[in-house]
Amino acid sequence: MKFPLTITVLLLGVIGNAWADESGIAIGQARQASLALGKTLKQELVSAMKRGGPVEAISVCNLKAMPLTEQISTETGWQVARTSLKVRNPANSPDDWERHQLQQFQARLDAGESMASLEAATTEQRDGKSVQRFMKAIPVQGPCLVCHGTELAPAVAQKLDSLYPNDQARGYQLGELRGAFTLERVISGE
Ligand code: HEC
């Protein structure tokens, strides 16, 4: 699974060089990294569910994401995480900017914008450093419903209950906004 992601991120560098400014290149990388990660995670989940069933696959949404995001971070300098207005793992809770953007994503979706166009970017000052941030919406797709839908298999529900006693990430329908990839990188500082 490492190979396609590496190719994608490498390609970005090439495409990025044609772009005008450095910040635009970085946003392009962040966008492509989000797309690559979304695709790879979905593939990993589907194959893990085929291999060992959904209960076995529960760790994939969490554990598999880590090496992938580390790889992206090494290749692009962007730190990647996931967040949502309704989190399963409280460690993924949004900060103020992320919460606001997630609310905007929902409002934009309700107003007829496509899921694929839901992105946000900003640069903020933090501890004397400039930090560039980027978010990209994550839709609920078919395989996600096994663990985030309305009718979970009892064994899945039981396992999730034991791992995530405050789970809010259930009851989703196909095509809804699940959350977002959230990326950041330090661009300057002393
Ligand atoms: C086999 C069960 C399973 C499937 C299938 C699954 N997830 Fe998850 N998902 C989880 C678990 C478990 C977590 C908590 C991970 C953690 O501890 O960080 C999670 C967390 C997330 C988060 C992070 C925010 C949060 O709620 O903590 C997002 C976003 C997410 N999933 C999206 C998806 C999407 C999109 C799909 C479909 C492509 C999907 N998941 C399919 C089990 C699953």
Structure write-up:
Residues 49-182 form the Tll0287-like domain. By secondary structure, the protein is an alpha+beta fold. The chain has one domain. Helices cover 53% and strands 19% of the residues. It has helices at 2-17, 22-76, 96-110, 145-148, 154-163, and strands at residues 79-83, 119-126, 129-139, 177-189. A hairpin with a 2-residue loop joins β2 (119-126) and β3. The N and C termini lie far apart (37 Å). The structure holds heme C. Heme C (HEC) is lined by residues 42, 45, 54, 57-58, 61-62, 82, 84, 87-89, 92, 138, 141, 143-144, 146-148, 169, 178-179.
Secondary structure blueprint with pairings:
Elements: H1 2-17, H2 22-76, E1 79-83, H3 96-110, E2 119-126, E3 129-139, H4 145-148, H5 154-163, E4 177-189
Antiparallel strand pairs: 1-4, 2-3, 3-4
The chain binds heme C.
Residues 42, 45, 54, 57-58, 61-62, 82, 84, 87-89, 92, 138, 141, 143-144, 146-148, 169, 178-179 line the site of heme C.
Protein name: DUF3365 domain-containing protein
InterPro entries: Tll0287-like_dom
Organism: Microbulbifer flavimaris
Put the structure in a nutshell.
This protein has 190 residues and is of the alpha+beta class. Helices cover 53% and strands 19% of the residues.
How would you describe this structure in keywords?
190 residues, alpha+beta, four-stranded antiparallel β-sheet, 5 helices, 19% strand, globular, binds heme C, Tll0287-like_dom, DUF3365 domain-containing protein
Q: Radius of gyration, rounded?
A: 17 Å
Strand content: 15-25%
Shape: globular
Q: Which cofactors or ions or other ligands sit in this model?
A: heme C
Q: Count every beta strand, where a strand is a DSSP E run of 2 or more residues.
A: 4
